[in-house]
Write a structure and sequence with these properties.
Number of helices: 3
Strand order of the largest sheet: 1-2
Length: 121
């Protein structure tokens, strides 16, 4: 019984045929690897990404609600001309945002001048 030799196969069938068979096996191997190993990982990563996006949206909605509540409190203090409690002033100073994206209130609060909120009207 003779052993299979690559050189003999090339001599018998020609290089292009042997190269095409080798490339066909390579494509089959890559296809199986992607189908069996990569696709399940991408599916899991997609599920995780969707869950994270949903959590970020919930946090964004919570921030908008909190900003709206804060705007209502500031508007209340503005309309009643009451002075701020020191505790509330400390909370406002501690958690003051510089982001305009979360400023849903339309109320500007100037702490330097009078310690009372002022409308932009």
């Amino acid at each position: 019984m003779e052993e299979f030799s690559l050189v003999e196969a090339i001599n018998q069938y020609g290089f292009p045929i042997i190269a095409a068979c080798g490339l066909g096996y390579f494509v089959y191997y890559i296809w199986q690897w992607v189908t069996n190993e990569i696709d399940p990982m991408i599916g899991d990563a997609t599920k995780t990404l969707i869950a994270l996006v949903d959590r970020i949206r919930m946090l964004d909605n919570d921030m908008i609600r909190l900003n709206t509540k804060l705007a209502m409190v500031l508007e209340y203090y503005n309309k009643t001309n009451k002075s701020m409690d020191p505790e509330m002033e400390d909370i406002l100073n501690k958690y003051k945002t510089t982001s305009q994206g979360f400023d849903q209130s339309g109320v500007e609060y100037d702490r330097k001048k009078s310690n009372t909120p002022s409308d932009n009207e």
